[in-house]
Design goal:
The complex is a heterodimer. Chain A is α+β, with helices and mostly antiparallel strands. Chain A has helices spanning about 30-45, 45-50, 60-75, 265-280, 280-295, 300-315, 320-335, 335-355, 355-370, 375-385; strands spanning about 95-100, 105-110, 115-120, 125-130, 135-145, 155-160, 165, 170-175, 180-185, 190-195, 200-205, 210. Chain A is built from ten helices and twelve strands. Chain B has helices at about 20-30, 35-55, 60-75, 85-110, 130-145, 150-160, 165-175, 175-195. The interface between A and B is large, with 79 and 91 residues.
């Protein structure tokens, strides 16, 4: 076969010809290199094992040592000594931010003074300012959990698009979306400042939560923020009336056939649920998906429906308990393998958020048993290690 | 994570004592030398990240895939038959991971849960000195590539964006030379149909 080539059309004066790489500018900055290395080192047993001394050949060791020395001597110092007072991570580099892409694990950074920041998949936290007396962080999107060491020298300010949370020695979660923000305090107290609050500021004590959405002109249901009773989570919408159906234990990957004449009904439910979700009505979408799973549990897409339901509960309705049940059910129904790892992690995350340590352990142990070399083992173990102790 | 792994060392600059070749580093890594793994990483991370970024069009996902690829490579290093071919082997692992990412992305998109942003499309990573015509053509190409099935898309990008030789491309895609050519041809036909006035034609082999 002829070797196909792209050719510019000279009659049109175009200059685009292969390889197109030469029209592009890509670069990988040093911070990305270091960041990726941290991730690789955390997951590589080979890098956790003690390095064995090379046998014999002292000259080989000398060559390597020379490479190291020369590398440091001519290094551009891209990783600069941080200015005094900048908050460092436990690895000694300035904390600039943390992001977890839409993948399967929670990302955590430990800070030098003992605080920790965790971001859930899809979340992003950026450091806006870091001085000896103040640390300003932005939760640009998604859910982040902050364990702030009490008695530290810095005041923490956590900004979101809609509110600012002022923190002194506490454990809290902040979840930011386009048109809402949710703050839950586990320990200590925080001040929340927002134009959406009636008095523009609210103090939240341990066990309290606050959900904020912009005030709407429609009179139907006022959506002003209100704290809920201790240990509850604020809900922007009333929860669906039915609890999720219990998980059905089937073999992994089982795909039952559709019942006769179910095709139209399930398609309609899927379409209606999708429409509700896109219209910003996650509770309605969840109700429709619950109905889909209840009435058509053998539908070939039931597992995906359960996964979507779990995501709605976890990400948009702030209900971790039904979220955990939905993710678990998705696994039982045979979620496709490309979503399997994500499903386990989300199950464990939701269980942890619901305070269900046993659920976290169940997710981690099931995954470890079925997939002993699974990529998400470290992430699930981390979730288990960080799960709150049962009261 | 040990302190050895906390910061990866830079590559030596030109004029410095030449570092060991990949084959030697692989052997040392198999003997337990962490520094060898660091050097392998440092040597190949940039090229791998850039290639994966072009394939995925998303920089955040690209970093994840690069990490996954290195973790897999370090884990399975003993399976590498020819240590001198570490780079090609690593690229192949990465392309396989890219395939998985696309499958996942497609599924999440169907569920309305794909929140990724294509921040590394060709038109977004174009050289600032490129002409407006080049930018416009790349934008059209981006759209057309986005509509291709994954396998032909990846083959086409490796061939005509990255400039891979066919044999190298087939190796990275884990397919035969004939399959690689077929995928490229499939992409060519689809792109010609979509791009209309732009000429993406096959030429006789000059050899």
């Amino acid at each position: 076969m002829n070797d196909a080539k792209l050719r510019a059309d000279p009659s049109r004066g175009r200059a685009l010809s292969p390889p197109l790489r030469r029209f592009l500018r890509l670069s990988v900055d040093e911070r990305a290199v270091q960041r990726m290395w941290h991730g690789i080192a955390a997951r590589s047993p080979a890098l956790a094992a003690r390095e064995r001394r090379p046998r014999v050949a002292a000259w080989a060791g000398l060559v390597v040592a020379l490479v190291v020395v020369l590398g440091f001597v001519v290094w551009d110092r891209q990783v600069l000594a941080p200015p005094p007072g900048v908050l460092l991570t436990s690895d000694g580099v300035p904390f600039e931010g943390l992001e977890a892409a839409e993948k399967d694990q929670v990302k955590t950074v430990a800070l030098a003074e003992g605080s920790r920041i965790e971001v859930s998949p899809g979340a992003r936290v950026e450091a806006l300012a870091s001085t000896p007396s103040e640390l300003v962080l932005l939760v640009r999107r998604g859910r982040a959990r902050f364990s702030v060491t009490p008695g530290g020298p810095r005041r923490w300010l956590i900004e979101t698009p809609a509110a600012r949370v002022e923190v002194v020695g506490t454990i809290l979660s902040v979840e930011a979306a386009e048109r809402s923000v949710r703050v839950h305090v586990e320990e200590g107290a925080v001040l929340v400042r927002s134009a959406w609050l009636p008095d523009a500021v609210r103090r939240l004590e341990a066990g309290h939560s606050l959900s904020l959405e912009p005030p709407e002109p429609a009179p139907a249901e006022p959506r002003s923020a209100a704290p809920v009773e201790p240990s509850g989570l604020a809900r922007a919408e009333p929860p669906p009336s039915r609890a999720p159906a219990p998980a059905r234990e089937t073999g992994g990957g089982a795909r039952a056939r559709k019942r006769p004449n179910d095709g139209d009904a399930t398609r309609r439910l899927w379409a209606d649920a999708d429409r509700a979700r896109r219209a910003g009505q996650p509770a309605a979408a969840a109700r429709l998906l619950e109905r889909l799973l209840r009435e058509h549990p053998e539908d070939e897409q039931a597992a995906l429906g359960a996964f979507t339901l779990g995501a709605l509960y976890a990400d948009e309705l702030g209900q971790p308990e039904p979220a955990a049940q939905a993710f678990r059910r998705a696994l039982a129904l045979g979620i496709p393998s490309v979503l399997r790892d994500a499903c386990y992690v989300r199950w464990a995350e939701s269980a942890r958020a619901a305070g269900d340590v046993a659920g976290v352990r169940r997710a981690a142990e099931e995954y470890a048993k079925k997939y002993p070399t699974g990529e998400q083992l470290p992430a699930l173990q981390a979730l288990l290690d960080d799960a709150p102790r049962s009261p | 994570m040990t302190s050895n792994a906390a910061v990866v060392l830079p590559l030596p600059r030109e004029g410095a004592v030449p570092a060991p070749v990949d084959g030697e580093l692989v052997k040392r890594a198999l003997r337990g030398e962490q520094f060898a793994l660091q050097l392998l990483y440092r040597r190949h991370v940039s090229a791998l990240t850039e290639r994966v970024t072009l394939l995925l069009s998303r920089s955040a996902e690209a970093e994840d895939v690069v990490q996954d690829a290195f973790v897999a490579a370090f884990r399975d290093l003993r399976q590498l038959v020819d240590p001198t071919r570490f780079e090609a082997w690593l690229m192949r692992i990465a392309v396989h991971q890219v395939h998985r990412r696309f499958r996942r992305r497609r599924l999440l998109a169907r569920l309305g849960l794909d929140r990724g942003v294509d921040d590394a499309r060709l038109e977004r990573v174009v050289d600032p000195s490129a002409s407006p015509e080049v930018r416009a053509d790349l934008a059209r190409l981006d759209d057309a590539l986005g509509r291709l099935p994954v396998a032909p898309r990846l083959a086409w990008v490796l061939r005509y964006v990255e400039g891979c030789e066919l044999k190298e491309l087939a190796d990275q895609c884990g397919c035969s030379l004939a399959t690689a050519k077929r995928r490229i041809a499939q992409a060519d036909v689809a792109l010609r149909a979509q791009l209309g006035c732009m000429t993406w034609g096959a030429e006789p082999d000059e050899s």
